[in-house]
Amino acid sequence: MSKFEPDYRNIVNAAFNKKAERLPLYEHNVDASVMEKLIGKEFAGLYEGDDRDLEEFFSYYCGFFRDYGYDVVTFEGCIGQILPGGGALGNCRITPAIQSREDFEKYPWDEIPELYFQNYGRYFSALRKQMPEGMKAIGGVGNGIFECVEDLTGYQNLCLMMYDDEELFAQLFQKVGETNLKIWQRFMKEYGDIYCVLRFGDDMGYRSNTLMSADTLRKFVISRYRPIIDLVHQYKKPFLLHSCGQIFSIMEDLIQAGIDAKHSNEDQIAPFSQWVEGYGDRIGNFGGLDVDAVCRMDRAELKEYAIDVIQKAEGHGGIAIGTGNSIPAYVPAEGYLNMIEIVREYRGDL
User: Fold this and answer.
1) Strand pairing category for 319-323 and 195-201
2) Which residues does 14 contact at the CB level (< 8 Å), separation at least 6?
3) Does 267 have pLDDT greater than 70?
């Protein structure tokens, strides 16, 4: 019988780089289809329904995290999904919304904050109503500065713009930074109470390097993080950055910008031990287990691998364990369940 009672303070401590009383489980995202397989109930379709459907959706969604040993419910509303003409990054839109200065000047920047809350307000309200006792949410306003710009321009076009129109390139990042901050300011006032750790995802790297030069990212992207992170800190809450890829060249800049914790790792880039040994004296580290291992390994192999990762991370500041990325639909439900149970057995509440 489970000895588990959720306590969101565990993951807050980990994010503030303190050893938690109980090692927290953490996922950046869990696809609802995987949840459905584990609980034996189809509920994902409720997400597109009316307010009553949404409350039922979140009763199952939040209940999953509670019942499977999590201290927090992971949920975010992504800016990229509401950007007019967006989708060059997230949905592979062929014709980006912004390709020229004329596109930039005509773009409805002032409408975006209101569009965001028109779209997501009822989701955050339903989440608040269904939050289990002892839990809070982790997440918030999804998509960081770099991802939002890419969603409007496309990555290739953005690279060309950097040389063809440096002024427009700079203005894009400035405008996105200002717009995102407006969303965050209203979000923290209206929904910050639901959340114990705030985050956004801003993938700035791939397997062997950053997607743009470290100097470019410092000047145009990371400089726009500071106002949002400072805002989160004004509410006395930690900020978690999710960024995939080989981003060691900008880690010091991210720490100086004020991030409290970082998530995302892939063994082919660097084992989790390299992240915790390099940065665990200053920031919390979330993740640890390569998604590929969760997909391919049987339970015995996964247990040996996971325990090794956990033990090597011990003594290196705040840690939260889960996959180094997320649980998309292709991850076998059995492999994901194995991972959860291995961590819970290790910490003694299963």
Assistant:
1) unpaired
2) 20, 24, 26, 261, 284, 286, 318, 319, 320
3) yes
What is the C-alpha separation between 129 and 121, in angstroms, rounded? 13
Residue carrying the six token digits 């839990």: 135
Residue 197 pLDDT > 70: yes
Residue 275 near residue 312 (C-beta atoms within 8 A): no
Q: Using alpha carbons, select from 272, 270, 269, 252 the residue that is nearest to residue 314.
A: 272
**What confidence score (pLDDT) does residue 1 get?**
47
- In contact, 168 and 161? CB cutoff 8 Å: yes
pLDDT for 280: 98
Identity at 316, one-letter amino acid code: H
Rounded distance, CA 234 to CA 136, Å? 18
Residue 349 neighbours by CB under 8 Å, 6+ apart:
2, 3, 4, 22, 69
User: Structure tokens of 331?
Assistant: 């991850």
Between CA 74 and CA 241 the distance in angstroms is 14
When pLDDT is averaged across residues 169-182 and rounded to a whole number, the result is 98
Is the Cβ–Cβ distance between 205 and 244 less than 8 Å? yes
* Averaged pLDDT for residues 205-227: 98
Q: Tell me the pLDDT of the chain averaged across its residues.
A: 97
Cα–Cα distance between 191 and 127 in angstroms, integer? 10
Cα 11 from chain centre: 14
Alpha-carbon gap, residue 32 to 44, rounded angstroms: 6
What's residue 3's pLDDT? 82
